[in-house]
Backbone:
């Protein structure tokens, strides 16, 4: 396995773990689901973004599905959440931080994999963002919440920014690994600004279901 | 580019613009989302149907994703909605008309593209309808509404009718462009009858969530 | 057509019929939809799982879409529900039994088809479970319910168990048909235990939407 594939795999697996933990803790905290529901929501959250990405670039079966390491890491994240969740689930912040970690790593890995498949530069940026927001969007749809990508100003934006940096660095011939770390850090930083903002300003936006 | 491809592209792009505007105005009116949320819902609504179509016929990456014009037109629709939306969003009718325009054009373009990929006649009709209702269904799922395709008697029906006319005309060897315009007009006409009916008879159907 | 393909087709078609009936009756009972909405929800429920399966293994266009028999059987299930539904829809049990039948048959057919496409043993089990839970998950998302796969302890588990038996039997060289029937019966039995348990213990789990 060459360095570039290894980088992609490492980003993907850490992001998968973060999203599995995030989805499972959300299941405990918000939807009060039982163990199987908690693990299932964790799996969907962890694997959703990568599956959408791989369907789009016709890399089927999806890596997140055909490679046992993704399944194992996602299951591990869910099991950690089930084991330690009851001690963590009052804490809203860990869930938001884990989600931001997953968002950042998937924005980068999505853009890198799209570049490998030669889909065009703008498309690589968009595909990175879709990979990043896909899991959380699926998570929120499954538990009946408006997806965070629609609710928060700073969710799609940092994902696009992270993916953009990856694509620009690639075009400039910069080495992959430092560019990936920098892009993920940028995405994470912007997202955490958004989280901080949202925490201070409780969102009153309701849905007018009759409209 | 031959005439047939050009026709398909024109139908697709106008439909994409209409759905982007529709999705973004819906985000403003119904879900009270912020700018990024408005643009995102517009993009999802505009690109959803075509992506599902292209996944089904294995035309990957999806045209709506790999061709920058779709992305540009969808973004433009969202920006128009953000700019002029505050002056339009009390008007329920523009949203319904735009949705009917998108529905009609996508029913036709979906059926035409399916015929190009030789998926069978019944399948071409169904695929046209899926392309037509896909974006609006995704839009409604994302904001937590029962999708209009389930709520309205005349949403799937006009889409199927439009796609059926395209397939019949193709089998009879009729020229593509007039057939496409006629099929779209038929779909639009039936749908607007449904809208008029729905406007006069406010739907009381609620969901019994405990059932 | 060889025996193995015939077995797969039979399992798929009976499962499709059961899920179409289940989805359509659910539309009548829970969401109070009109005829077109009832048929549409039946089609989505019946075809959803198989479509996801075929996208994952890159068997496109999806069999459930390109083969007219799936469409015909799904439509038939919906029409039966529309015709006899008003006499059945107070009965919660028929819906749950039909859903369990579809779950069991799709767990088996999903795993069998995955084995045909050589996706790996663990993946075949997972793919069987995804095929089984896919239709019901889509059904619940469309009508705004938390999907049963998240709500019920015994929904993903029996699907995984049924698919696991299929994969083990295949590895041991057991004949397909008896293994398939046994696996489906096991899945159905575990699921019905879950249904009985759920019926006796009304689930108080609500969603805290503000969390």
Residues:
């Amino acid at each position: 396995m060459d360095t570039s594939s290894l980088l992609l795999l490492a980003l993907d697996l850490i992001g998968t773990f973060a999203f599995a933990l995030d989805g499972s803790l959300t299941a405990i905290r918000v939807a009060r689901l039982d163990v199987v529901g908690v693990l299932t929501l964790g799996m969907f959250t962890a694997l959703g973004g990568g599956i959408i990405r791989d369907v789009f670039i016709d890399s089927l079966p999806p890596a997140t599905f055909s490679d046992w390491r993704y399944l194992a890491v996602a299951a591990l994240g869910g099991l950690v959440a089930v084991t330690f969740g009851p001690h963590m689930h009052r804490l809203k912040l860990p869930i938001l931080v884990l989600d931001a970690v997953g968002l950042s790593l998937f924005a980068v890995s999505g853009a890198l994999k799209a570049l490998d498949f030669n889909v065009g530069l703008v498309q690589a940026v968009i595909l990175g963002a879709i990979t990043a927001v896909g899991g959380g969007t699926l998570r929120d749809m499954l538990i009946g919440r408006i997806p965070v990508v629609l609710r928060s100003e700073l969710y799609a934006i940092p994902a696009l920014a992270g993916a953009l940096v990856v694509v620009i660095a690639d075009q400039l011939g910069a080495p992959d690994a430092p560019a990936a770390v920098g892009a993920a850090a940028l995405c994470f930083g912007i997202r955490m600004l958004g989280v901080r903002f949202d925490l201070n300003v409780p969102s009153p936006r309701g849905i007018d279901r009759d409209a």
